[in-house]
Amino acid sequence: MAPKRPTGAGAFPIPVEHTVPKPPDPAELYAALDLGTNSCRMLIAQPKGSQFHVVDSFSKSVQLGQGLEQTGKLSRASMARTVNAMRVCRQKLQRHKVRNMRLVATEACRRARNSEYFINQVKRETGLQLEIIQPEEEARLAVISCAPLVSTKTEQLLVVDIGGGSTELVWIDLRNVPMRERPRAIMRLHAGFRQDAGPFAAAKVVDWISVPLGVATLRDQFADVEDDSARFALMSWFFEENLEKFAPSTEVQARENFQIVGTSGTVTTVAASHLGLRRYDRTKVDGLRMTTDQIDAVIQDYLRLGEAGRRSDPRIGKDRQALIMSGAAILQALMRLWPTDRLSVADRGLREGLLYQQMSAQGVLEDTPF
């Protein structure tokens, strides 16, 4: 006997309406591109309250500064890799019809004798106009990107941005700023380190420095040292020597209410290694606070692994393994010099600073707490 057919079996299914997300208005979109010594990275975002929502992104290791230490020039191969990456960025900008953008280049282009030729080549082949920014603006943009991570209890702040070709350090005094206003006072620095804050209490920039040593340039300077541990120690010592002119280096600082915020691939990689992440997760890394002992434990683990072990370590990644020890040498020197046993990890930097700067200048960010 055939089974009884259920009631309504022959009825047509009711169509389900799927809502398609409405694409953002191109007039509300902002783009920021950071072309550094090692990487080309871009964000496209739209304002959302006092923050922004990322719509699209791009990141690629182009090694623009490869060989720059020896020749003083950008090589043809590195320029070709970078132009190809810039073509991908152009496609994304065109797809989203972005009108508001800043596309900047940093240390490699500042130092290279043929940077003007390269900038013209990018313009000719992609239609994109790169802008070479000076170290002070690079430092300022890194600072404002970290504003949401600044504790309201912080009185002395050191922001460190470890790049491929340079490292920026900014020391800020927040003691005269009301506690609840301290993150916002950092954001107002987008207008300049020396400013009249008007009716607002201003964050005082005590000193800042741009050291022409980043993860790529420091690695290249000690490439002839064969022993892994010796090379690491020499890199850390050499970086510390280059901080002599940074005013806070010569003064005794109070440990209480002092905060270091570190922004770079080095810092986020060390954090990911500490957490044991085999697959990187920004939500777990950004804002993490690490102790000096935890940072030292990760660095000692890197040294025990050796070059072969680091190459196969999934926590480090193929793009970062060649640069992680020079970055770790910089990080260890910084933690050795200043009076804190904690570091705030920032998965943010120049791109985020460029976005905040553009949005703040056009008044599209809401005046609400971070």
UniProtKB/TrEMBL annotation:
Q: Name one GO molecular function term.
A: pyrophosphatase activity
- All residue ranges annotated as the Ppx/GppA phosphatase N-terminal domain in the record: 44-360
Q: Name one Pfam family in it.
A: Ppx-GppA
Matching entries from Gene3D superfamilies are given as: 3.30.420.40, Exopolyphosphatase. Domain 2 (3.30.420.150)
Q: Signal peptide position in this chain?
A: none
Question: What is the superkingdom listed in this entry's lineage?
Answer: Bacteria
Entry protein name: Exopolyphosphatase
Which organism does this sequence originate in? Answer: Thalassorhabdomicrobium marinisediminis
| Organism classification | Bacteria, Pseudomonadati, Pseudomonadota, Alphaproteobacteria, Rhodobacterales
